[in-house]
Design brief:
There is one protein chain. The protein is of the alpha/beta class. The strands form 2 sheets. Strands 3-2-1-4-5-10-11 form a 7-stranded mixed beta sheet, with helices on both faces. It has a 4-stranded parallel beta sheet with strand order 7-8-6-9, with helices on both faces. Helix 7 links the parallel strand 7 and strand 8. Helix 2 crosses helix 3 and helix 5 crosses helix 6. The radius of gyration is 22 Å and the shape is elongated. The relative contact order is 0.18. The structure holds 6-O-phosphono-beta-D-fructofuranose. 6-O-phosphono-beta-D-fructofuranose binds next to loops. It catalyses: beta-D-fructose 6-phosphate + ATP = beta-D-fructose 1,6-bisphosphate + ADP + H(+).
């Protein structure tokens, strides 16, 4: 392999730049050319490429977002789109590809491998942490810290006004952000898609906290939770049953994806960027590099996208015990 391309796709995540930087610099270190692909698979189809040298990624390790930009490409879902992308790769003399993203990104990568036998290695980059084969995805730690910081601020106003806050956090179908920030920010209840708490349990919990004399409460709701149709409807329902509660809803939204990456995410991204280039040089393909028990590991992309991450029962218990 003489030339490796790198792209970021799907939702951006803090630390993606640190991963791009590590890929570019590992290429320089191993004397391989590196190409940056703009806008994920969209830019791959259009040949939106840029030669990347070690200096092109200076001053990026601390930046949120992705300097290569990202997209969710519809055209790449079609065979014609992928044909075009493959042709662009061949015409540019690219021998292998590193994709940084989540399950959608890896699904696209598997198609390139299946249809054209083109070598691809994946790096997990998403705030959701919904990828199997790595303890953490790049961006997850930063998002946790951002969310905890914001909930702390909301707690100040919740306690000043004796209010009940429903705070919706991201995570798509996964409750990792909700469960961990709920514990970290001292939430009364945490609603996650993996465990159907049911409205009764929430009501019990609210009754109990009133009896215990708690004057304000925070309920963290994962966006994928199915207890109510959405967090506003859930809040309306509770308001009807408990008219004495002064209820507010706060949807944290895309702020959770922004900001400077934490040191943890920078180190993780640097390790995985180097590991991805080394994996390709070792002729690996169809794998994702991850860090498990502090060791760099690889797992098949097909496994990585099957989030069979069981929710951690111990964490659920800690959440229950620490909110009595
Ligand atoms: O996958 C990251 C994520 O932020 C999810 O948590 C969320 O459900 C989704 O992306 C939002 O996507 P978009 O930025 O397209 O609105």
């Amino acid at each position: 392999i003489k030339k490796i391309a790198v792209l970021t796709s799907g939702g951006d995540a803090p630390g993606m730049n640190a991963a791009i930087r590590a890929v570019v610099r590992a290429c320089t270190y191993y004397r391989i050319d590196c190409i940056g692909v703009y806008r994920g698979y969209e830019g791959l189809i259009e040949g939106d490429f840029k030669d990347m040298s070690a200096r092109d990624v200076s001053n990026t390790i601390n930046k949120g977002g992705t300097i290569l930009k990202s997209a969710r490409s519809q055209e790449f879902r079609t065979e014609e789109g992928r044909e075009k992308a493959y042709k662009q790769l061949k015409d540019a003399g690219i021998g292998a590809l590193v994709v940084i993203g989540g399950d959608g990104t890896f699904t696209g990568a598997m198609k390139l491998i299946e249809e054209f036998n083109f070598p691809v290695v994946g790096i997990p980059g998403t705030i959701d942490n919904d990828i199997y084969g790595t303890d953490n995805t790049i961006g997850y730690d930063t998002a946790l810290n951002t969310v905890v910081e914001v909930i702390d601020k909301i707690r100040d106003t919740a306690s000043s006004h004796n209010r009940l806050f429903f705070i919706e956090v991201m995570g798509r179908d996964a409750g990792f952000i909700a469960l961990n920030t709920g514990i970290g920010a001292g939430a009364e209840e945490i609603l996650i898609p993996e465990k159907d708490l049911g409205i009764d349990k929430l009501e019990e919990s609210l009754d109990a906290s009133r009896e215990k004399g708690k004057s304000s409460s925070i309920v963290v709701v994962s966006e994928g939770d199915k207890i109510g149709k959405n967090v506003f409807e859930l809040a309306d329902y509770i308001k009807e049953k408990y008219p004495f509660y002064d209820i507010r809803v706060s949807v944290l939204g895309h702020m959770q994806r922004g900001g400077s990456p934490s040191c943890y995410d920078r180190v993780l991204a640097s390790r995985l960027g180097v590991a991805a280039v080394e994996a390709l040089l070792d002729r690996s393909t169809g794998v994702m590099v991850g860090v498990t028990n502090n060791q760099v590991t690889t797992v098949g992309l097909n496994k990585a996208i099957k989030m069979n991450h069981d929710i951690n029962r111990e964490l659920l218990k800690v959440a229950e015990i620490t909110s009595v």
